[in-house]
Amino acid sequence: MKRLHYLTRAILPAMLFSICTVPTIADTVRIGFVTTLTTPAGVIGVDMKNSVELALEHIGNQMGGLDVELIFEDDGFKPDIGKQKTDKLVKQDDVDFVTGYIWSHVLLASSKSVLDAGKFLISANAGPSKMAGVLCHENFFSTSWQNDQTPMAMGQYLTEQGVKSLYIMAPNYAAGKDVVAGTESTFQGELVGKDLTKWGADAQLDFSAELAKAKASGADGLFVFYPGKAGGAFIRQYQQAGLQDELPLYSVFTVDSISLPRFQEAGMLGVLGSKMTMFWSPDLDTPGNRKFVSAYLEKHGKYPSFYGAQSYDSIMLIHSALEAVGGNLEDKDGIRAALKAANFDSVRGQYTYGNNHMPIQNFYLREVVEDDAGRWTTRIVDTVFENHQDPYASECKM
Amino acid sequence: MDWGLLLTQLMNGLQFGLLLFLLASGLTLIFGIMDFINLSHGSFYMIGAYFCGSIVARGESFFIAVLFALVGMFVVGALVEWIVARRLYRADHLDQVLATFGLILIFDAIVHIIWGPAGMAIPLPEFLDGQVSLGTLELPTYRLVIISGGLLVAGILSVLVTRSRLGMIIRAGASNQTMVEALGVNIHKLFLIVFAIGATMSGFAGMLIAPITEASIGMGNDIIIIAFVVVIVGGIGSVKGAFYASILIGLIDTLGRSYLDDLMKLFMSLDHAETAAPALSAMLIYILMAIVLAFKPQGLFPPAGIRP
Amino acid sequence: MGWIPSTVSGRCYCIILFFLAGAPWIFLWTNQPFLLDLLCRGLILAIAATSLNLIMGYGGMVSLGHAAFIGIGAYCVGIPAYYDIYNGWVHLGLTVVVSAIFALLTGLVSLRTKGVYFIMITLAFSQMIYFTFVSLEEYGGDDGLVIYLRSEFPDFLTMQGPVALYYWIFSTLLLTLFLVHRLVHAHFGRVIVGAKHNEQRMQLLGFDTYRYRLTCYVISGVICGLAGMLLGNFTGFISPEMMNWIRSGELIFMVVMGGSGFLFGPLIGTGAFVFLEQYLPEFMKFLNPSWLEYWHLPFGLLLVLLVLVGKGGIHGMLSKLDSKAQQSSK
Question: How many CB atoms are closer than 10 A to CB B216?
Fold first, then answer.
């Protein structure tokens, strides 16, 4: 009988809890956060979750006088599960904002559910060209970037540096191709080779064949885009192939605060000094960033990643909008105007929104260095683009 | 034609093939002898990598770590056989797939709980981290270590299977299990040993690859499907078949990645070749398997006397 | 045989069907639009699982590439929609023709093999089509395609609106169940089932089992293609991820969890799968908010236990109740 008691006490309420609608309470703002918590990509989701929780601490869990109720959902790296979780947030939990989204395909699959229901959608990472162009929407905002921008900055930098020939490697999927296209659009030297490697459930992690080709090509530089665990594998093999002296490495979204501590543990000195472009860096000297990075360092003992920074900003952006309308969730126009104003201490400093609600922001050149405490991190070396707008803004009819 | 590059790529293909063989040989034996489809065979690959990584992280040398991890893998394999696997041998293939998929989820979650989601980089001793020159050719030293390690294990296994008494029983078991049982062999013990050896070899493959790709959750699930392709192409239960199929698939995959785009540029526009080549090279091994099965529905080397 | 089934399991299935028939009204009345969505997705997958059960449960042809048909069906909606063709008959016709052709071509080769070799060759074909769609940049590559509008049918058959779409799905499911039931109990089904158990005997009896199998495989492929067409309409989004081999694996789980080779097995199994996938994470979150990341652990344990303890899936457990009830009535 005791067991049955446990059943009734623990399991039934859980089910009821999830099945019954919780009535909308006017003094609470609900925010859904969709990210990846399981699968190997879960490490990104955890960093985002940490940052979002930090943001809530910083605003005392209050937005415009409303209590914040944050609901995390795991998309499992699958677009249709992401959409299902989004539907649940919109239709059952009746959230006011949905944010998060690491992956372009999950965002594309879910956007219709959120926007058709008249809710606000804020991407904290994914920036597919369609959402910036033809699919732009008055209630869609981004606190990250459009996929093309960061590699465009890289191409620009390489051209300025006088790099004559380049070898490119990226995974064979939509964002990979976007990144390659972005670099090609601003790089004016010669492309001597390009490899798009297998991606997906059984992604290719052994790049020996490609590295051998890159070496044989005699290029001045090697540009790569390998997010997540593939990044670590790539850097490792790049170093083992002894390429750091003859084929300098330039990357985007490959070396980040999630992978650097691992590289340091494994003593992969080859990554020190490698260069990348990014809209942000832990050492960026803005009031919002100092507060975010120092608090994150103190709480988790490591640097936050750019995924975390964008997620932190997504909460801060919503916070600024609700403060502006005094917590009146019915005032959609007011909230939209306040979101568009982006009037808050963003980790990247002040930025503005373009017509398509993608940030117009600076892009920096960063370099991997060792900080004063001996931790590996990235440092800003130069500003490549100032107030850069993505190339799809003109396709947006807004 | 750059012959040095071709040679490098052949070495890379050989290395990938040998890794596949370490996984596939265990898989094919377990499949052939116990008639057991073990989807979670790739989890041993992951666990081996994590074992080795944690021992290295304690400051031991890489070789000591591999030795200890190998013993650990044998124990893990035996435990899994004893607790779960032996209850599944008589089950339907479908039930085996379902249960071992469950095991994958369990292993992944356990690794996630113990080692966290971030994965683990495994440093190599300095003398392995560089390159060696072979004439005009420069190859990463560690790649040669993988190749020799793989060849060594393949050699030991082939001696074990063809010359030893255990191997004789194993071969007999793959062809006709009832007969072996009738001859008074303790079939439970045999299964336990075969399973644990399989797990150890799979773990060994994980240890070898981890310094290159890092240990990460789900790393075995990515490769297990290719290992199954190897088993099928080679013929279920055949270690010899697994060896040839591994090398074949390793070479085809690597050479496809290296030369397919150049090849396709010969007869189509640059843009089309750039889109089509990666897709086709990802498909190559599946195309190979479909072709092999279309002509030899039992794989290249079906063991004699196996039930159709 | 009376109208009310005499067994416990039979009664359960009867109740489930009645519940499904009225579900939209219950959920709209209790203001639970999300549950209706969840049910739509579950039933679509149930159609796919039922089609897989036809070849796998009855015919012994375990396909690890069945999700390819879901993808094909979905792209038969998505690609015309990309060119602003929303005519439902075009979508439906394309789905049937393309999935039949794909099933025929792959079946011709695959059915030369048996057992595990069949599993792997179907996997091979589905991977080929998966990588093909990933490389089709025109249709979004692996970012997929957004479908703005649903397939357009005449008024009395409309798919617009959640309830109309639900009844489309529900009727397709009913038709599928009916078709599978009739097929299996007809002469055709006996040959298929007979060939699963003893192919040589069926061949000696003069049946060309290869042809029967091929026909069965094509029928199954077309039904699964229809499920894909419905899924494309339901989610309004398609991507190659839908036809990944992992998805095919999930379909197998749904069938096995419910009870392979039983008419209602896939429906029950899909229900259990979709329910767990949605509510197990919620439950873990309820126990401890930081456990959300670990929901795969109890899910894996459940799968292992289901095989070790409950033979024959959920249907198997229900049938045990049947035999108990029979014994006690004797």
Answer: 27
